Amino acid sequence: MTAIGFAWRSLVRQPARAALGILGVAAVGALLFDMLLLSRGLIVSMQDLLDRGGWDVRVSAGELPSSGLRIPNAIDTADAISRLPSVQAALVVRTASVQIDRASGQPIRASFQGVATRSTDPAGSRLRAPWTILRGRDAEGPNEVVIDEKLASESRLEPGGTITMRASCVADLEALPAIRLTVVGVAEFPFQSTNESTTGGTFDALQAACGGNVGSEADLMLVTSKGDADGTAAAIRALRPEIRAATNTEVVGRLQQTGFTYFRQISSVLTTVTVSFAVLLITVLLTVSVNQRLGEIAALRALGFSRMRVVKDVLSESALIVGIGGLLSLPLGLLLASGLDRILKGMPGIPVALHFFVFERQTLAVHVALLVATAIIAALYPMRIVSTLPIAATLRDEVIG
Amino acid sequence: MTSVPSSRSSVSGPQSPVSAGPTTGRLIVDARNVSRVFAMPAGPVTAVRDVTLQVNNGDHIAVRGPSGCGKSTLLHMLGCVEPQTSGTLLFDGQDISRLSDARRSLLRLTQIGFVFQRFFLLPMLTALENVELPMSEAGVAKQARRTRAIELLEYVGLAPRADHRPSQLSGGEMQRVAIARALANGPRLLLADEPTGELDEATGAQIAALLDRVNRAGTALVIVTHDPALADRAGRVLMMRDGQIESQRVR
Asked: What are the structural domains of chain B?
């Protein structure tokens, strides 16, 4: 009988204890799996979000695109950038707060993203705005707008309808006249959070809504390179040293050093705690199991079982508990991650398309490696008990006992 | 006389370096002035003192004496599970104290059988699997060990109960399975520590008869017992007191 077969029989011998150990490992393993998904989830998800739409360089006035500072002379700057040899297109993005009137009830607060594309490359003009059209078409004229699904649902609006919008572009106390825009499409805005509404249109539409007060300032500029994002970012920095240009990877790197670092730290601490808990749980279970069977183990040693063999039996038992529990931890962890993701995405300002828990093969490999290490470390103490077991003294004690 | 099923044809495990010695010789164990001293908090306790004993092929030896006189310790020393503090113990001419733990394990696996007072059958295995276990450890092929385990269970009269777990067997039946297990790899020496200690008189007599049969088939037998009836069946009875052999009676 192999060590694994023997360990299996030992586990089945006390099904309640085995089930307790396996379920404990499954629960702890699920938490461990989630912490590993969380440790890189935001980074992977943010990178994916930034890469959507094909814009690979982001230009802003501050260190991060969300710094609140605005790029002056944005249209002229976009023109200059679009003429760089490595650039395919540049997109100016300016956001304003708007109120959308409703026939009945309170007006809806939303944001309006006005965009303008600059390109000297024919392929660049085909690039999409930073949203995805779900129904209808994209806004092209100064009187056209696309709205998000939430707004469409709340206002019962579909392509072909009209909205009345009051913009607040420079200060909240502005009293700008309302303008009427035609809804030409329903779109998904990747950086929109669950509790806000967003509309989008051309830069000219935004200027009209803002009564011409926007000037040429932009919150952000998105640039598509012809393949060399790093070189393009460097060229933009050389062209306009006063503004910040960063590739998507660099933006994610900066986020990692700032806001995301909390999640990584929390994840690291909880990973350590869960692994320690799993080690303690299995060590206790195996130690109790071994201590209950000391007489049998001493008898097996007397019958000629080698020290290595009884050590292997204990290690195999640990491997079985962790292996079965670890397998169960995967679906349990994914289920838990889905629930936690929903809760965390409910926080204000979190983009709908951003995920805190993202599955990667690498995460699974780390999870398996940690579980293997757990099985080995947890078995060390009980393995030491059986390997140093004094055979004769144990047999004597069993008889006296 | 029914012979013990031979393990020669079925045991094909790794050859023991220690069993490569003079296995055909008469002398199995040669203990010369062996002592065992335990270090206790209150001071050293001598469990076995200067015992000299030879066990030959086919010997039937009973060791008697009051509780704590060192009978079990001597048995454990003969079985290579208790190292001597002083003296020399040779098994098949080889000094046990010079063997590594792995070699001593292999020696026990292939040359020595143990029968315990408390049986120590594994409760999660059937009787058949319990008997197969030492052969499995010795590397015997599955079919060969299954065949031999069935033969051994037939030999001890328990073939119909091969698929029963220890919890489904009586004390006497468990001890018979334990004897079959001890014989699995065809040992030259069978050591039994109070083999009838947990059994009633009638069942104890059955076990004693079975051990006699094993001995008559050629396996040397050393039994530690308080039971005078069991001891009286032996060819040599050693009386121990205070760790020493006080007297020896040869039948």
From this structure: 27-250 (3.40.50.300)
